[in-house]
Design brief:
The chain is of the alpha/beta class. The chain is 40% helix and 15% strand. α8 runs parallel beside α14, α9 crosses α11 and α12 packs parallel to α13.
Length: 364
Amino acid sequence: MRPVVVLILHAAAPEDAGPLVRALAEARHSLAIRQRDAFLAAGADVAEVVAGPPDGLSFGERLAAEMRARTGGAMAPGGLIVLGSGSIPLARAADLRRFVEVAAGPAGYALANNRYSADVVAISRAADLAELPPLPADNALPRWLEERAGVAVTDLRSHWRLGVDVDTPLDLLLLGLGAPLGGPATTAPLIGERLAALSDVLTNRRAELLVAGRISATTLRWLESGVVCRVRALVEERGLRAASRLAQSGATTGSRPPRSVLGELLDRDGPEALARTVAALADAAVIDTRVLLAHRHGASEQSWPAPEDRFASDLLLPATIADPWMRALTESAIASDIPILLGGHTAVNGGLRLLAQRARAGKR
């Protein structure tokens, strides 16, 4: 059995961060500590939380630097598990043992929670990362391993709980972990009201729900029986963050930039039209706004509105949003007569499932 090292990468809040960014960073760090202990209990030999403020390094550069720092320039002979500090908070002990088993097993294999958009990856031979390029995010690592490094990659994407990731304060609320938010949670009462109204729609046979964004195939199958309302699904830009050209083999020219049908409508009518557009289609909506931002600004998050703005939009706090377009979108969602939930990948996948489970149990 190969020795297994677990690296949990955590980005601390920068000095000039707003309250929502700071609250999320603190919550993610707490999750990272919990994951470190859980991986050690699952059989990992070493587990470390690698924390530090943003320094401009890409995921690929950071991981390569961490490996060099631990091995004196040569890649370690054992296995590696790498994940972000907000990754797989719903993982069970058995799930973590599977990642450890692959990392400790025969060389040439890798296991991801989702090969098309990874949050955690186990690699049985760390030396396979020797030529790792500056991938912008961990989501593209399985694709690079398979297409460029010749590693056999499998995944656990049928396990919905492993697709839940904490990328925004809203995800903490959907997970029932609102307490770490502290002040920001108590100053956003409207989001609680909208979550309750959305729960009512999920349990209403005569209602219709719109779900728009990076909806997984697993979520689509679950929606057929997991909610009693009718569902209208608009699936767009799955694999958005994993589609790095650095991870792809063969010709990569002519790639289409991110596009969104809903984004096209908002381009035509303005972000103020969100409420009117959604109300014509459904009685409630859960919208992955990161797809709209990619449609508007491109795939790189560096060109999007600041994280503080995105998080405030998710919590329906328009007064603190500096970006005019995002503020107008959020104000439209608030003014709507129907509940509209704005969020990211977790909101339209595992978070929606958790909300439906609580609604069926009579809890909100």
